[in-house]
Batch of 2 targets.
Target 1
Amino acid sequence: MSVTLIDSDLLIGELQLGKSPAVIAVDFSNGFADKKSPLGGDFEPQLEANLKLIEAATASNVPIFFSTVVYDNEQQASVFRQRLPALNILQRGSHWVNIHDKFSPYVNRDNIIEKNYPSAFFATTLASKLATLNVDSLIITGLTTSGCVRATCVDGLQHNFLCAVITEACGDRNQSAHAMSLHDMHAKYAQVLPLSQIMEYFKSL
C-alpha cells in the first residue's frame, strides 16, 4: 500500500536517506511472529519481505539489528504488562523471546537488542551501537506497526536519524491501526517506502 497525504496534513519536506544506513527489525521474536502466541498474528508475508530485505542488506554490508522484548522479573515494565497481560509470556529463556528461525543465519549476540518497552531505543544499547557504526539512516521494519514499530520510528527521529519504514515489511493485528500508523509516520516522522525502493537503495551504496 502507498500512503497518501491529504490537504489537512502538514506540508512535508523531502528526505534523502544517507550513505550509512542500518536495518532495525523490530520484534520478529516468536512471541509476535508466531500465530500460536497470544501476541501473534498471521505475518508470513511480512516475514518473507523481511527475509528479502535482510538478504539484500547483508549483501550490501548494511548492519542489521533485531529487537526482542525480554523480562527477567515482575518489576520490569510492570504498568505496561498490567495493561497488556499477554506480554508476560516474554520471559528470558522462553521460546517466545527468540528471533524467528527464518532469520537465524543473520542473528548473533552483538545484533540483538533486548528491551522492556515498545521502543527499541528506550533504555537499550541501540543508540550507542548505531553511533559506533556512524549510522545516519534507519530502515525500520517489524511487528507491530501501531506499537513497537511506531515507537521505534519516533525515537529514531528523536535521535536525529533519517528514518524509512518499509510498507510490506511491517504488520499489525489491526489493519486499520496499521494503515493509520503508516500514515502518521509518513506525515510526521519518516518516509514510508516500498521494499523495491529500498532494495535499489542498497544497491546504490
Target 2
Amino acid sequence: MNGMSVSYRRGLMGAVLLGFLPLAACQSTGPVADVAAIDTAQGSPENIASLTAVIDRAPGQPEGYNIRGTAYGRGGQYKQALADFDKALQLNPNYYQAYANRGLIHRYMNNQSQAIADYTRAIQLNPNYDVAYIGRGNVYRLAGQIDQAYADFQKAIELDTTDPRAYHNRGLILQQRGQHAQAIDDFSKAISLRPTAPEPYNGRGLSYAAQGDDDNAFTDFNTSIRLNGSIAESWANQALIYERKGDRAKAQKSYARAVQLDPQYQPAKDGLARTGGSAG
C-alpha cells in the first residue's frame, strides 16, 4: 500500500530560511513519500464485491483478506481494512506483509505506536523487508524522531531497495540537517527511480535554492508543477524564486495559486502578503 490521506501532507518539515525569504517547506506527498490521494475506485462496491467473492471461495487463505484490506485502505475505509488485516494475521501470524499493511493503516489513523509495533513485527519476521523499514521510517519522521527515521531509510537503502521513497525521505532529513549536497544526490536518485513523481523535484529544488542555485531550483519547481499542478508547495516554491528575481507580479500570481489550492498553507499566505496580494 502506498496511499495516504491528504491530512498528512502538512507539517512534515519546517521552513528553510534563505536570506529574508522563507522557502516553502518540502511536503512529502504522492507515491514517492508513501502518500497519495484516496482512490475511491479501490474501495468501490464493485471492486470489494469481486475481492469478497475470492475470499468466499477460499475463506481459510489469508492472502484474500490482505488484498481486500489493501483495497479498503486505498479507498479510505480504514476500519474495514483493519478488520481484514486482523483476519489475515489470525490465519497466518507470520504474514509480515499484512503486518506492514496494517501498520500503514494505523499511520493513516494517527495511531503511531501501533503503526511502529506492526512495522517492527514485520521486520522481525523478515529483516530484509525494505517496505517495512520505509514505512516505519515515515512514522518516525512524522513524529519528529529524525534519527530513528534516518536509520530506517538508511537500512532500506543498504538492502538495495529500488523504492524511491527511501531516497526521497532520507533526502528530506539530510535537507533538514542542512546537508544540501547529499540531499540533492538522494533526490536525484529518487527521480531516476520514478521520474514522473513531482515530490523529489520539489525537494531537490529546495536544496538547490538553499545553495543559491536559483536556476536549477526554478527548473525543478516548474517540473514539479508540470507533473502535478495541484500541489500548493510547488507553486509557493516557484513564487519564491520569482520573488527573489524581483518579479513581484509573477510571484504574486503563483502565491495566489498556492493559496487557492491550500488556504491553510502559511508560506504561501505569507508570500502573498509580502507581494501585495490578497487571499480573499
